[in-house]
Amino acid sequence: MPLYEYFCEDCQSEFTVLQSTSVDRTQTVCSECNGNKVQPQLSTFAAKTQGFSLANKPPVTASELPNPNTLNLPLPRLRSEL
Fold first, then answer.
1. Contacts of 71 (CB under 8 A, 6+ apart)
2. Partner of 34 at 20 to 30 A CA spacing, among 15, 46, 59, 77?
3. What spans are recorded as compositionally biased (Low complexity) (predicted)?
4. Phi and psi torsions of 50, nearest 5°
5. How many angstroms from the chain centroid is the CA of residue 30?
6. Quick one: which of 57, 49, 54, 43 has its CA closest to 3?
7. pTM for the whole thing?
8. What is the layout of strands, in order, in the sheet containing 38-41?
């Protein structure tokens, strides 16, 4: 189940709720004051990963690919361009 973040207009607090995707989110109430004037907030996405980090690895160059000509292929065209 995903976590949803809300802002309560009644008590000005932010709170997080673990809710099923099938729940009617318009019926959510504030966990602080039980008010019903809550607005969903945009939250960041997080993912759990395992293994080593690729953050410090340099980008792949054409010489490292199995077929160096892969980067030289023509770009696909849209149907409207044909």
1. 62, 65
2. 46
3. 65-76
4. -125, 160
5. 24
6. 43
7. 0.52
8. 14-18, 3-8, 38-41
CA distances from 6 to 17, 23, 28 (A): 8, 15, 9
Distances in Å between the Cα of 74 and the Cα atoms of 69, 71, 77 are: 10, 9, 9
Q: DSSP labels for 54-71?
A: -TTSPPP-GGGSSSGGGG
Residue 34 backbone dihedrals phi, psi, to 5 degrees: 65, 20
Task: Give residue 80's identity as a one-letter amino acid code.
Answer: S
